[in-house]
Every structure is written in C-alpha cells, then in structure tokens.
Design goal:
The complex is a heterotrimer of chains A (about 350), B (about 270) and C (about 260).
Chain A: E1 3-10, E2 15-22, E3 27-31, H1 38-46, E4 53-58, E5 61-62, E6 73-76, H2 88-98, H3 103-116, H4 132-144, E7 150-154, H5 162-178, E8 182-187, H6 190-196, E9 199-204, E10 207-212, H7 214-219, H8 224-230, E11 233-245, E12 250-265, E13 271-273, E14 282-295, E15 298-304, E16 309-313, H9 315-321, E17 328-334, E18 339-342
Parallel strand pairs in A: 3-8, 3-9, 6-7, 7-8
Antiparallel strand pairs in A: 1-2, 1-4, 4-5, 9-10, 11-12, 12-18, 13-17, 14-15, 14-17, 15-16
Chain B: H1 13-36, H2 42-46, H3 49-82, H4 88-95, H5 97-100, H6 103-114, H7 119-128, H8 136-161, H9 165-172, H10 177-206, H11 209-214, H12 225-235, H13 237-263
Helix pairs in contact in B: 3-8, 3-10, 6-7, 8-10, 9-10, 10-13, 12-13
Chain C: H1 2-22, H2 29-33, E1 37-39, E2 42-52, H3 56-69, E3 73-80, H4 82-90, E4 97-99, H5 103-111, E5 115-125, E6 127-132, E7 152-155, H6 160-168, E8 178-180, H7 183-191, E9 197-201, H8 202-207, E10 212-215, E11 225-232, H9 238-249, H10 252-258
Parallel strand pairs in C: 2-3, 2-4, 7-8, 7-9
Antiparallel strand pairs in C: 1-2, 4-11, 5-11, 6-9, 6-10
The chains are: A alpha+beta (about 350), B mainly alpha (about 270), C alpha/beta (about 260).
Chain lengths: ~350, ~270, ~260
C-alpha cells in the first residue's frame, strides 16, 4: 500500500509538477521556501485542489478523481481548523461519525485518541479554551481517529512558540513513527524535517530539486536554498581531477572528479588572515567583508569577492584581526575541508 | 493602565451632533405616540377582541414568514456565498429587488403570479383548488416576499465572513457537502442566521403594502396590526395610536429578548 | 477638518428644513404675502384645496377653468383619503378648502372647530356593482353577491365607501373576501380579476369603463354618499376659498355630473 502520485497544478504564472512516492509507514517531508508549492501539493493529495494532470494512487486504489470526503486521508492543517462550536471530544469524534460509526462508539474512539495524545482531561473544552500545543494535539488526534492510510500535515508546528514546539515535536515524532500508513509532511523548517521525516523532498518553484535521506541532503546540497538551510558554502563549477574551475576562481579539492560538479565546505573551514598567508597548500583569495552577524558562540562573516562565502570565526579572532565591514582580508580553505560531487 | 485612569475619549462634534440629531429623529416620533396616547381609555381599548385578533395574526404570520424565509433564504444565501456560477452578480441584485420595490407594487406583482389569474395561481387553483389571495397563507407569502432579502443579505454576509476552510477540514474527515453544511457551516454562521431572522421577523411584522394588496383586509384572517392601524386612522386617530403602541411594545420586547439570547452572544 | 464637519452638519440641517417646508405642498406664508382676496371680481393669490381622492379628475378640470378666468389665482390641490386629509387638517395643515367624501369625515373637522361656516353638500355619489367587462358571471343585482361561487370585495367600514356599502347591504347576508382600505383598491381587485364583484362609486366605475362595467342597483338609493365642502377656519385666503366653492356649485356642476356624480 504505497502512495504513488504525480501532481500537476497549472496556474499560468506558477506551475506545480512533482512526482511523489511514499511507502507505508514512511514519513516524507516536503521542504522548500515559501511559495514553492508545498501546500498546493498537499491540498492536491487531499483533493482540495483540483489537478490539471497527474494521478494519485494509494496501493491499488486510484484516488485521482475522488472528492476529499471519499479519500482515506487525515489532514492536520497549519492552524488546525478545529471546529469552534464542538468540544475537543466531538472534534475528534467528527471523523468516525462521518464514517458511519455510532455516536457512543465514536465518542469512545475519540476519548481513546485524546488519551493517547495526553488530553483526556481536556475532552470537554472548546477549541478556544485550549493552548496552542493542546490544539495541535487535538488536531492530530482528529486526523488519526479515522485511521487514514495517508496522513497529511501542513506546517504542523509553525503556529507554536519555540518552547512548546520542542515538546510537541517530540510527541509528534512518536505518533508519526507509530502511524502505519504513509505520511506527507509539509514544512519550511529544516529541523522539523530532519527530526520527523525519513526522507526529504526539496521543492523549489513547483519542482523537486533534490530528494534523499537527511544525511545525503545535508552533506550534498544541490541548490543554494538547501545549502543555506544546512549552513554550507556551495558552488557549481567544472572539475579536472583535483581542480574545480568556478567563474572567477579555481579551487583545489580533495575528491577527484571530472565534468560539472558541486563544491561544498563549512563556514568554519574558512580561515581569515590580515596578511596573505604562505606555506601549506590551500585555496587563498582576497575578500571584502560584506557583513558580520552573531552565529551561536561565534561570528559569521559574510564575504564578497571572487566568490561569495560565509566564514565562522571566534570573537577573539575577530577582535585580533580588527574585522569590520568594508575591510579586505585573505580567506583560506584547505582542500581536505572541501567536498566535491557530481552535479 | 487601570480603567479609572483612562483618558476620557473626546467625541468629535462633527460626529456627535448628527448622531444625536439622528437619534432624536428616530425617537421623537415614538415619544409623540406616547404623549398622544389615550392612557385613560387604554385598558378597555386593549381588551377589544379585534385588537387581540390582529395582534395574534400579526405574530403568527410574521413567525411563519420568518420560517419560510429561513427555509428558502439560507440555501439561497449559501448558493450566493459558496458556489461560483455565471450570473451570480445578477442573481444577487435580483434578490435585493424587493428592498427597492414599493411593497404595494410587490403585492400587485404577487397577484399577477399567485392571483386567481396569475401564472402559478391559476395552476394552483385548477390542480389543487388552492387560492392564496385573501387568505392567511397569502399574508405569510406577502410578508416573506418583502422580508426575504433581509435574511439573505444577512446570512450571505455571515457565510462570506466565515472561514470556508472549516468546510474543507470537514471534507477531509469524510463529510459530504450536505453533512458539512448541516454540521459545520450552519453552526458557524448561526449568529448571522439569528440576526437575519430577527431582521426578517421585524420587517414581516411591520409589513403593510404588499399584504393589503395581495392578501386584502379581513379581520381575523388577513387583517394584521399594520392594516388595523391604517384603517383605525381613517376613523379614530387615538385607536390607531393604541394599536401602534401595542405593536411597538410587543416587537421591542421580543427583539430585545432575542437579541440578548441569540445575537448578543455573537 | 473641523470646519468641513461643521459644514456637513449645516448642509444636512438646511436640507432637512427644505424637506420639512415641502411637506404640505405649499408653505402657509405664501398665501399671505401674495395679497390675497378679491380685486374687483377677480380671485387672486394662493389657494390650497384638500379634496377626497375621488374628486381628482373633476377638481383638476374645475381648477383649470377657474384659473383661466383668474390669472392671478394659483390653486394647489392635495388629494387623498378623506379621513387622512381630515387628520392633516386637524393637526394644523395649512388649507383653505376641504371637500370630503362623506359627512362623517367632515364632522371630525367640524367637531374640532376647524371650519368657518357650515359645510354644504355639493354633489352626491352612488354605489354601483363593479364587475369584469361584459359581466361574465351574470350578476344582475345585489342579492346575487351572496352567491357562494362569487368572490366579493367591499371597502372597510372605516372608509366612506364601506360605510355606504354597509347601509346598502342591509338585509343581504354576504361574506366578502376582503375589506379594502379605499375604493380604488376595491376596484383594482376587480380589474385584476381577483374578485368577481365590488361595491364602488359610480364615478370610479365610470373612470374605469375600459376594464369594468358598473351595474346600477336600486338599493343604492338608500346609501347615497353626500360630498360636503367647507372653508376652513385658518384659511389664509378666505376670499378665494369662498370663490372656489361658489364656482364648484355653479359652473363646476357640469364637470362633476359628467364624471358620474349627481347634483344634490
């Protein structure tokens, strides 16, 4: 029972066209910037967004032409959309009732789900009496109470504050792991994606630009968006053995490659010098400081020059070098700190 | 900041003066009725059977007309608010026509359709032996015709204001369009429907022109309070004032009660 | 901003004042300022006549004739239900002449002492049975109206035509489907085919000969409606008012009988 889909929505200026497959029990995160089409894809899977082309198959069932109410799905919406006129219990019982379960039985099921998300004592409350985290858990219970074969979550943690988010994320992970059906999660937060998903699908401008497990995607980003998400400097160039030619600079790299490649290195691998360093074999270029920001315990220096790059230095080093925007410095990266892979 | 120390809001005179003038404009005529009311003979006038008959008929027909408006108007409002179709703007304009039509003309129009020689009325008469003019049902029809736009406009506004995504959420939980309408949409817009129904009822209660034209005037059957007031005015102004006061007191009492119970909660 | 706001208020108040002064068709002051009265034989100034709606066509013609002879006379007519006009007069509406469709309504004005001199009956009107053109139901007389297959409209007792109908119908048991608020409404029900017959004035039936036939019936003789006319106490132009009434009773008679009224 596997989700096999191709989702095409054409709005003229914007076209979504992605293929998405999810195995039973697997959690796939659709990750991408705002406006990339993630939510549109999720709505197409739910049947809330008409498709111009494509198909949605779940196991042997073809859902493509089915209206939302006849799809075996559960949806957690970004702002939950708990029915304000119903108690938490009746919100969760709503789905089972619509699937033909008797009132008493549906309520028992609902109470069971509320217990599982730890909210049995809030069953009689109206949605506006619940905290954000509680509402999120009721929404999850409501979606799971219909035993969906396809669970869809749209930014399930985006509406929560940082503290609540941490607890709720851990709790959500537990439920997603236990869910036997396929799960598609839409998020723009890489941390949510990394923690909750088995596989990441990166969507930019309506297309899938990269997909794979967390380790692969973070180690080998293929777009600037992903590189920024995982905090790497990323360049595209042409490789001849250990040398990669970029637009204005040639880098020495550890990996031996030929043809179009990506080169990536961590900001902390970039060393800065006031004078041009000599000696050990490394990549050296003159750069102008474009900006300085705090980054954890360190400072992140944005560099302009032949290549745009980010460098992490300690505050002490920054003081010693007297770093300030507009100053020219020398940047150096060891070949062993770089990572080159085919484009 | 404690409420007691809050700076008192200055109301601009340019707003306050016309606002007070507007209030006086609405309240003074009512005060006029109170001043001229024949208080001494009031009790015996109230006990007159034709007064009570007219009052009972008014309350009955206004309530039935409101029920009819709810039955037809809520689905119509839903159609206008939720379904995209060609000519929706035109339909919306047509719905408001009874608002601008003089009610007497509305009554004539009703006669042309539901009258003895009307397109529908002729058929009703021949097929079922039903005639609407000069009957209590005719009063209900005339009142509903005039009051329906108030309900449709109020409910459509409430529906447009309600978040349609709740209906999407219901669909993903397995609710079809009808179940979604009854279990999610209606409860969400209930305050708007209540407000619309109250307006509708008030309009129906005061209806005169369409009623007297379509349903005629016969005590106990089609003579509602406004008709009784109009005819009383022909002979005895004081009687007309008394009838108006009754209508005023009853409607204000009912509306105030309803407002607190239903509309105020919104 | 403040100035503009104030201007808006002033404008609104001026508009309101304008509305108010138009209410009674013509303000009272105009009559006085136009030097009313008789200059030689001629009538001059403003004259305001309140008259029953059934007199509309006749009085319009009579007014034109009178003004043609008195170029400095300006007559304003206010037609309406007699009772409504009486109420307006008793509430202080500025009028010179009141012509009512029944002595009962005239009495409400006299009772309040708003008349100058005794009202005189200047025409009579008689009831007829208005039926659809060609009389498809074959109605021959008043007794036919009790036939169960017929729908009949009467005027409400509160209005003159209803009072007259009640008198005429003494001895006939009849259940009308509706008691209309005025004679024109009763007639309209016949025109629209909603009722088979209605008791209306002969003048009204005559004005609608293209749609209805008016059947005379002997019992109507017992319920003839007198139309009284009077000069009002607060008349701004008493001379012209008296001149108008005199003209109605002399040269106006032909016009009135032509419309179906009877001379007193």
């Amino acid at each position: 029972m596997m989700l096999d889909s191709r989702l095409v929505v054409d709005r003229g200026a914007f076209r979504l066209d992605i293929a998405l497959s999810v195995a039973p029990g697997e959690v796939v995160a659709l990750l991408g910037p705002n406006g990339a089409g993630k939510t549109t894809a999720l709505r197409a899977l739910a049947g809330l967004q008409p498709m111009d082309e494509g198909h949605i198959r779940l196991g042997t069932d073809d859902l493509t032409a089915l209206p939302p109410e006849r799809r075996p799905i559960g949806v957690v919406f970004q702002d939950y959309l708990l029915f304000p006129h119903l108690s938490a219990l009746d919100n969760v019982a709503f789905g089972p009732r619509r699937h033909g379960v008797r009132r008493q039985e549906a309520r028992a099921t609902a109470l069971d789900w509320l217990t599982r998300v730890g909210l049995a004592d809030q069953a009689a409350k109206r949605p506006r009496q619940l905290s954000g985290g509680q509402a999120q858990r009721v929404a999850l219970a409501r979606a799971l109470a219909v035993h969906p074969r396809l669970l869809l979550l749209d930014e399930p943690l985006a509406a929560l504050d940082a503290r609540t988010r941490l607890d709720t994320r851990a709790e959500l992970q537990r439920h997603l792991t236990a869910h036997p059906g396929a799960t598609v999660l839409v998020t723009h937060d890489p941390l949510d994606a990394l923690v909750l998903a088995d596989r990441l699908v990166i969507v930019e401008d309506g297309r899938v630009v990269q997909e794979g497990d967390a380790a692969t995607v973070t180690a080998r980003p293929r777009t600037d968006y992903v590189a920024r998400l995982v905090g790497l400097n990323l360049y595209r160039g042409r490789a001849h053995g250990h040398r990669v030619t970029l637009n204005n600079l040639t880098l020495s790299v550890d990996d031996q490659q030929d043809g179009e490649v990506f080169v990536a290195f961590r900001p902390s691998a970039v060393a800065l010098y006031a004078e041009k360093p000599t000696g050990s074999p490394r990549n050296i270029w003159a750069a102008t400081i474009a900006g300085i920001q705090r980054h954890g315990d360190n400072l992140r220096i944005e560099l302009a020059g032949p290549i745009a790059a980010a460098a992490d230095v300690t505050p002490a080093a920054a003081a010693q070098l007297d770093l300030a925007p507009g100053r020219t410095v020398w940047a150096a990266v060891k070949a062993t700190e770089t990572h080159a892979y085919p484009a | 900041m404690p409420a007691s120390r809050r700076r008192r809001q200055r109301v601009p005179a340019a707003l306050l003066v016309p606002a007070l003038l507007g209030l006086a404009f609405l309240v003074l005529p009512l005060a006029g009725l109170l001043i001229r009311a024949p208080w001494a003979t009031l009790p015996q006038r109230l006990a007159e059977p034709h007064v009570l008959a007219a009052l009972r008929l008014s309350l009955l027909t206004a309530t039935l007309a409101t029920a009819l408006c709810l039955l037809l108007g809520v689905p119509l409002a839903w159609l206008l608010a939720r379904v995209e179709f060609r000519g929706r703007g035109l339909v919306r304009a047509l719905v408001t026509v009874p608002l601008v039509l003089p009610p007497v003309v509305g009554g004539v129009a009703l006669l042309l359709v539901f009258g003895r020689r009307g397109i529908v009325g002729q058929w009703l008469d021949q097929a079922f032996g039903i005639t609407l003019p000069f009957t209590t049902a005719g009063v209900v029809l005339a009142e509903a015709f005039v009051a329906l736009p108030f309900l449709v406009i109020a409910v459509e506004g409430a529906l447009r204001g309600a978040d349609a995504r709740y209906e999407e959420a219901a669909a993903t939980l397995g609710a079809g369009r009808w179940t979604t309408f009854t279990h999610v949409t209606l409860p969400l817009v209930a305050p708007g429907i209540a407000a619309g129904a109250v307006l509708c009822w008030a309009r129906a209660l005061g209806e005169f022109g369409a009623t007297i034209t379509f349903a005629g005037n016969f005590p106990g059957r089609t003579q509602t309070m406004p008709l009784a007031v109009y005819l009383a005015l022909e002979r005895d102004v004081e009687a007309a004032i008394v009838l108006s006061l009754i209508l005023l007191v009853v409607s204000v009492t009912i509306l105030a009660t309803l407002r607190d119970r239903w509309v105020g909660a919104a | 901003m403040r100035l503009r706001g104030t201007m808006a208020v002033v404008t609104a108040m001026v508009l309101l004042a304008g509305c108010a002064s138009n209410e009674g068709d013509e303000p009272a002051g105009n009559g006085g300022s136009a030097a009313p009265g008789v200059a030689g034989d001629a009538l001059t100034g403003q004259l305001t006549v309140f008259a029953a709606a059934s007199l509309t066509e006749s009085f319009d013609r009579i007014g034109q004739d009178l003004q043609a002879r008195n170029p400095n006379l300006f007559i304003t007519f206010n037609y309406g239900g007699s009772s409504g006009l009486a109420t307006q007069i008793n509430e202080g509406a500025p009028a010179d002449v009141f012509a009512a469709a029944s002595p009962a309504t005239m009495k409400t004005v006299v009772d309040k002492g708003n008349n100058a001199g005794e009202p005189v009956v200047f025409v009579k009107n008689q009831l007829v049975i208005a039926v659809a053109k060609g009389n498809p139901k074959g109605i021959t007389g008043l007794a036919d109206l009790a036939r169960p297959d017929l729908k009949v409209a009467l005027c409400a007792e509160e209005v003159p035509c209803g009072a007259a109908a009640k008198k005429a119908l003494a001895g006939v048991t009849l259940t009308p489907v509706t008691l209309e608020q005025d004679v024109k409404a009763a007639l309209a029900k016949v025109k629209l085919g909603e009722v088979d017959a209605a008791l209306v004035y002969r003048t009204d039936a005559k004005a609608a000969t293209s749609d209805v036939d008016g059947l005379e019936f002997p019992e109507s003789a017992g319920a003839i409606n007198d139309y009284p006319i009077v000069v009002l106490k607060d008349a701004p132009n008493t001379a012209a008012a008296e001149g108008f009434i005199k003209f109605v009773q002399t040269e106006g008679v032909a016009v009135l009988t032509d419309a179906g009224f009877q001379a007193p």
